[in-house]
Hints:
By secondary structure, the chain is mainly alpha-helical. The chain is 69% helix and 11% strand. The protein has helices at residues 2-38, 50-64; strands at 43-46, 69-72. It has a two-stranded parallel sheet. The longest helix is centred in the first third of the chain and has 37 residues, at 2-38.
Amino acid sequence: FHCTFEAREVSVLEDRGYGQLPDRLEAGVDRAFDLVLACKGRDIVVGMGKSGKIGRKIAATRASTGTPAFFVHPG
């Protein structure tokens, strides 16, 4: 019974944490966008694997909208 209680308690704590995630994530994402938009000059995007594919897309989108942007593979 002790293990069952711990599992239930962990589940409740995780659920509470996930409930707070949208508020925390939203503030961080807004701040990240503000920082990117405030940058002057060229954007250099770095990523490997799936994040690299997303980084290429971000760099291409930024370049197509008038901001000099480059993707650099970290390898």
